[in-house]
Write a structure and sequence with these properties.
The complex is a heterodimer. Chain A is of the alpha+beta class. Chain A contains 23 helices and 10 strands. In chain A, the strands form 2 sheets. In chain A, strands 2, 3, 4, 5, 6 and 7 form a 6-stranded antiparallel β-sheet that branches. Chain B has helices at about 5-15, 30-45, 60-75, 80-90, 105-135, 140-150. Chain B is mainly alpha-helical. Classes of the chains: A alpha+beta, B mainly alpha. The interface between A and B is large, with 70 and 56 residues.
Chain lengths: ~650, ~160
């Protein structure tokens, strides 16, 4: 009964989204305030209905209602409650439902907090958001109905894939989707702005917090996914340029570009048209990311052909959303006011460099991901594009962006003084050069590329810190005064400094771990001892262990580190008889600078066990860095919310515009 | 196709083969230099029956066979290039994770530098145009005098 209510709520939500997508837009074009104001109750009602459906879907998992096909396929009675709940979005259908829920939630949030918005812009933006909901709800209802039943009702479910039974992966989809779907708001505002024919600082001021929120979610989601892959998969790596990873990375690259160019629109009304294009494409890449990956077309062309209804629907949805917006853009963008001019060396100039780098980087990742598919469809030639391609194309493209990241914030708007900034950064540059030289001379296996990478990372971190201190005037003022100024810098400044510092840490982690990681793959018997990177590992034996739905072999390994006291590590190999799979439960000991990483393999039948030991220096910095970046975004967001509370930013800008024209 | 199959496909993409047992100790060569070369070759080659996995990282039987094949060829004294060429002659360029520079991949390799170059030229052109449009004409003597007056410095 409850399940039917969920189904019904979903269909009602589709109808309400239709009203939300049509009436306010008509109202805005005819100037009817009553019709325009319908957008808020419609958005909230649609959210309530989708939330009801989503809640019922989760409830069906909690009470193990195996008459629902999706529950039967992805849950079981023995599953712990946490994984019963998070298993709800572990399946294709459940994740699509999560997608439409987050879409509706963003619309609802704009309806709730968009008091300061001009009525027509709000009506149009929420109207577009309603149309997006309408399209995706139609997709869910028509091709991926989460509430489909089966009969006869099976006594128990098939269970959740063991790899998904992990806290990291349980919360990876909601975070990732909060990013993907969050860019829908930017998209809706961009299309609404194009229809209105007016994009100004006030527009950017409304849009930027939402973009920032989505960006934080996406950053954290990708980092969590990468971390999960690191500790669960047992191969010691964290990024493999795999299509699924690329699919989330592409919207991140464009979203990062968008965040920066929006700031140019907000502060200077420059880069307006370009920002609109980015807003459309970022959400387009989010759609490509979720839907094309979910459709399996990247895995194989045949997977797509197996479900033609779903595939064709997806293609039409993407074509309508992206193509429609681009068509509108082609007609309307030339009518927008030309941006304010700026010198190449200026804050805007740094943003342009950032945008070029991130845009070209995104295009490269896109090309590498889809090229094999296009070539196969075009000529039938099967081709692989693997990590070596991305390493040799994407990485060099990114380097100028890092330089812009450090130098840019110190440049003035409109016309910056590059020489002054360069002089300021001399100490950071000298320190980086010194460290690179020391690394080159004293570290084993140091290539020029690795030392150069270290130098870039050190320079980025020191440069960001220098910029922050200079902003407080540390070199010009008394200590007490500078300290007071430092404390009172706007949170937005702290936000981007944290984020940029995090990117520096991330680069350091990537460079150092790729250049200096060591691995040992050995067959060990109880009593054996192996050495890796100065650590001595004594393999004392393996014991059987029984979990709720798995059996494990648990190795006991005593670790003698080069310095300090010894400790024990217990890597496990878990086998799930119901699912017929095994997973690694790796044992990782970290000190924040380096990980000792152990993964246990199968017994070889003669009493020996395969042990994979990795020493991964600075790998933790990859996730610290990503965490800093996401946290920096939240700090900036806090700044913006404060300004919203005071409600002072849009008014003076609008007034200034009025005076100017 | 059911959601489960789709999801399995997704997971297969994510997983690089379950517990990824990959390279086994028993396969390794005694000579560390040759073994390092074998592993480097293995990382460049795709396992044909898996999803986006190098044969070094895959635990599929085919990957195991290929790892042994690489090591046998290295032991008879072949260079890395010869070993890779031999495997390509048997399986086609699909096995190469690092796509070679061929007519079919010109677009793949040339697009990224072309993008950067194109963006650079476009921006340089725009910067020049902007500088031209922003150049403010110098004040005439009359305007200069008026400005001085307005600034309160007297005529």
């Amino acid at each position: 009964m409850l399940v039917e209510i969920g189904q019904f709520a979903l269909i009602l939500a589709f109808l309400v989204a239709g009203i939300e997508g049509i009436v306010p837009l008509l109202g805005a074009s005819s100037g009817s305030r009553a019709l325009m104001d319908l957008c808020r109750p419609a958005a909230l009602l649609q959210l309530a209905l989708v939330a009801l459906a989503f809640g019922i879907f989760i409830d069906a998992h909690i009470v193990s209602d195996f008459s629902v096909k999706s529950v039967y396929e992805n849950s079981s009675r023995a599953l712990p409650l946490l994984y019963k709940i998070t298993g709800a979005w572990g399946s294709h259908k459940g994740s699509m439902l999560l997608w439409v829920f987050i879409l509706a939630a963003y619309g609802g949030l704009v309806a709730l907090f968009g008091n300061a918005l001009p009525a027509s812009l709000r009506a149009r933006a929420l109207g577009i958001q309603g149309l997006l909901s309408c399209g995706t709800l139609a997709f869910v209802i028509a091709t991926s109905n989460p509430f489909a039943r089966i009969f006869p009702v099976p006594p128990n479910g098939l269970g959740l894939n063991p790899l998904l039974q992990d806290p990291g992966l349980a919360f990876h989809p909601p975070l990732l989707y909060s990013g993907y779907v969050g860019f829908s708001i930017t998209y809706s505002f961009a299309v609404a702005g194009l229809i209105e024919g007016r994009i100004d600082a006030a527009w950017a001021h409304f849009v930027r917090p939402w973009t920032l929120l989505a960006w934080c979610g996406l950053t954290a989601g990708i980092a969590l996914g990468s971390w999960w892959a690191y500790y669960v998969l047992g191969w010691g790596g964290w990024w493999e340029w795999d299509p699924v990873e690329n699919a989330s990375f592409m919207p991140w690259l464009l979203g990062t570009a968008l965040l920066h160019s929006l700031s140019a629109v907000e502060k200077r009304e420059s880069l307006v048209r370009w920002t609109l294009l980015l807003a459309i494409l970022t959400f387009g890449m989010s759609l490509v990311g979720t839907f094309l990956v979910r459709s399996g077309i990247l895995t194989s062309v045949h997977a797509f052909a197996l479900s033609p209804a779903r595939g064709v629907f997806i293609l039409f949805l993407i074509a309508a959303v992206v193509g429609g917006a681009l068509l509108l853009y082609a007609f309307r963008a030339p009518l927008l006011e030309a941006g304010k001019p700026f010198a190449p060396v200026s804050r805007e100039g740094a943003f342009v460099l950032n945008n070029v780098v991130l845009g070209a980087g995104m295009a490269t990742v896109f090309l590498g991901t889809f090229y094999p598919l296009f070539v196969q469809l075009w000529s039938g030639i099967k081709l692989s594009v693997g990590p070596p391609y991305f390493d040799s194309t994407f990485v060099p493209i990114l380097i100028p962006g890092i330089i812009a990241m450090v130098v840019g914030p110190s440049l003035a708007w409109r016309h910056g003084n590059l020489r002054r900034v360069v002089v300021r950064l001399v100490p950071a540059f000298a320190a980086a050069l010194l460290i690179a030289l020391l690394v080159r001379l004293f570290a084993p296996k140091a290539s020029w590329a690795a030392s150069g990478g270290v130098a870039l990372a050190v320079w980025a971190m020191l440069g960001v810190a220098t910029e922050l201190l200079e902003r407080a005037g540390v070199s010009r003022r008394e200590w007490g005064d500078a300290w007071r100024r430092l404390r009172h810098l706007p949170r937005g400044t702290y936000g981007y400094s944290l984020a940029h510092f995090g990117i520096g840490m991330l680069i350091a982690g990537v460079v150092v771990s790729s250049a200096w990681r060591s691995q040992k793959i050995v067959s060990v018997r109880p009593g054996d001892s192996i050495k890796i990177a100065g650590f001595t590992l004594d393999f004392t034996g393996v014991a059987k262990k029984k979990g709720p739905d798995y059996e494990a072999e648990r190795a006991r390994i005593r670790v003698e580190p080069p310095h300090g006291v010894s400790y024990m590590l217990y890597p496990e190999l878990r086998s799930y008889p119901r699912a017929g799979t095994t997973t690694n439960h790796t044992a990782i000991h970290t000190n924040g600078f380096a990980d000792l990483y152990l993964a246990l393999g199968k017994e070889d039948g003669k009493g020996g066990y395969v042990l994979r030991a990795f020493y991964n220096p600075l790998v933790p910095w990859i996730w610290f860095g990503a965490g800093f970046a996401a946290f920096g975004g939240l700090v900036s967001l806090a700044d913006r919310r404060l300004r919203f509370a005071k409600k002072r930013a849009p008014a003076p800008l609008a007034a200034r515009r009025a005076k100017a024209s | 196709m059911s959601g489960r199959v789709l999801f399995a496909a997704l997971l297969a993409l994510l997983l690089f083969g379950g517990t990824a047992l990959a390279l086994e100790p028993s396969e390794k060569l005694a000579n560390p230099v040759l073994e390092a070369r074998a592993e480097a070759i293995g990382r460049e080659l795709r396992c044909l029956v898996c999803q986006d996995e190098s044969i070094e990282a895959s635990d599929a039987p085919l990957a195991h066979d290929l790892r042994l094949l690489i090591r046998r060829r290295l032991l008879i004294g072949e260079s890395n290039k010869q070993v890779i060429a031999y495997i390509v002659s048997r399986y086609g360029i699909f096995v190469l994770l690092d796509p070679p520079f061929l007519p079919v991949t010109y677009l793949l390799w040339l697009t990224p530098p072309a993008l950067i170059l194109g963006a650079g030229i476009f921006l340089a052109y725009r910067a020049r145009r902007m500088r031209k449009s922003e150049r403010v004409p110098a004040l005439s003597a009359e305007e200069h005098a008026r400005a001085k007056m307005l600034l309160g410095e007297g005529p």
